[in-house]
Design goal:
41% strand, Nucleoside Triphosphate Pyrophosphohydrolase, single chain, alpha/beta, 5-stranded mixed β-sheet
């Protein structure tokens, strides 16, 4: 399903739903960041997705990372809570979702790269190469917060 992110856009469609989502910021021993290239909008992103019934937020983050990248991880902290009503995601089925996402910090503990129906590319990206990738501003915000290594989580 295709999606379009609207960020601080006065012409964005009005949200008609909200769902709990998670994402994970993961760095390897060299400080490179685990990224995917999404199949639904062709943008680079950190892995993440929607919480499913019967799982905790941390379990959802671990599952989403595994499903989208093949990498096993362990959640170690919270980077931020993102609930900007001026960020909506429009899907081609008519759903327009208001952002509500928890971004976790995690460490890789195993696995091997594999793509999925949600990721057409999986890669480790050095921080110096991030600026050259096509990344939505909402993900760039998470990357900035993660790299700042703040003690307290960001929240909106």
């Amino acid at each position: 399903m295709a999606r379009v992110d609207y960020y601080n856009d006065p012409n964005a469609p009005k949200a008609n739903s909200i769902a709990v989502a998670v994402s994970a910021f993961i760095q390897d021993d060299e400080g490179r960041i685990l990224m995917i290239r999404r199949t639904d909008n062709d943008l680079y992103s950190i892995p993440g997705g929607q919480l499913e019934l019967g799982e905790t937020l941390a379990q959802a983050a671990v599952r989403e990372v595994r499903e989208e990248t093949g990498i096993e991880c362990e959640v170690t902290g919270v980077i931020g809570l993102y609930s900007n009503p001026n960020h909506v995601i429009a899907y081609d089925d008519g759903e327009v979702r208001q952002e509500f996402s928890i971004c976790f910090r995690a460490t890789p503990v195993g696995g091997e790269f594999q793509t999925s129906n949600e990721s057409k590319e999986v890669l480790w990206v050095s921080t110096s190469k991030i600026s050259g990738l096509k990344i939505h501003e909402s993900i760039r915000l998470r990357l900035r917060h993660a790299l700042a290594m703040q003690v307290s989580p960001y929240f909106t």
